[in-house]
Design brief:
The protein has helices spanning 11-16, 41-48, 57-64, and strands spanning 17-19, 25-27, 51-52. By secondary structure, it is an alpha+beta fold. The protein is elongated and about 60 Å long.
Length: 69
């Protein structure tokens, strides 16, 4: 009987995604790091909020971060 192989967590993905109480994946929006002068206040306000990950990306990210769920 050999040792059970454990998957390695992708550390960059682990830092970019977090899991909500109901198990949904949340990520931060891109586009807030620079060139903010020409963006409207409304747009910058929306970029501050986290976004729930949708579609086929969820399955991919769950494979990268297996022990967060």
């Amino acid at each position: 009987m050999g040792k059970k192989n454990k998957m390695k967590t992708n550390r960059s993905a682990a830092k970019r995604f977090k899991v909500t109480g109901k198990g949904k994946l949340v990520h931060f929006r891109a586009g807030r790091s620079h060139l903010n002068r020409k963006k409207t206040a409304k747009r910058k306000r929306r970029l501050r909020q986290d976004k729930v990950l949708e579609g086929g990306y969820v399955k991919h990210v769950k494979r990268l971060v297996p022990y967060k769920f």
